Amino acid sequence: MRSRIVWFVAGSAAGVYTAAKARRAAYRLSAPGLVDQAGALGLGWRAFSAELREGMDAREQEITRRLTTGTDPEATRNPPTSPDLRTP
Amino acid sequence: MSVEVWILVATAVLAVVAIAAAVIAVRAARQVPRRDPAPAPRSAQIIIRDPEPPRAAALEPRVIEGRLVLPPTQHQVVQTALGRPGVRLSILVHGAAHALRAESRDRISALMRREYRRRRRERLQAGRRAVRAAQPTPPSDQWLGS
What we know:
The complex is a heterodimer.
Chain A: H1 2-29, H2 31-69, H3 73-77
Helix pairs in contact in A: 1-2
Chain B: H1 3-31, E1 62-64, E2 67-69, H2 74-82, H3 85-99, H4 102-134
């Protein structure tokens, strides 16, 4: 009796899960779902472009700074550690 | 006197002159006051300072072979350097690497997922509202009967 209940609960859960997944997949493949995915894709493309532009601007500023001041920003940010030159 | 004797005498005179010059040079060297070097400290610290960045000298327009040569401004130099294909490619690669790093990828994918779910939820809510508008529910006291 107990195993029957367990199997009944497991089957019900699997059915609910499969039904929800199937409903979402059907919506994804329908026309409104495709429109929604296209909208989300456009938003993602805009965010990616903004990130790309941000990285390009940072690189341009770094190159400009290097050209105008003649210093390497990376070197000033992480100065090399000099060995101890003191004589005993 | 034979030739050998003359050569011997000349060589002897040259030797005397050379010895005299050497003696004079040694005396002159001894007369130079010696500078006693300062006692070296037992511990010397060497301070290395970064040299100042070279300052761009202001170039002036010059006439060379009858032609006026205008030196480019720093802005023009920077713009020209930034316009080189290699530099443009480097900038583009850096931007792509910035946009494809893990933080940006996660942020963009989460943004897209939230946007899709928001659109789907709004569309389903609009569908339910339309169904309710088309089929109004009967009054709640209808089941009581008349």
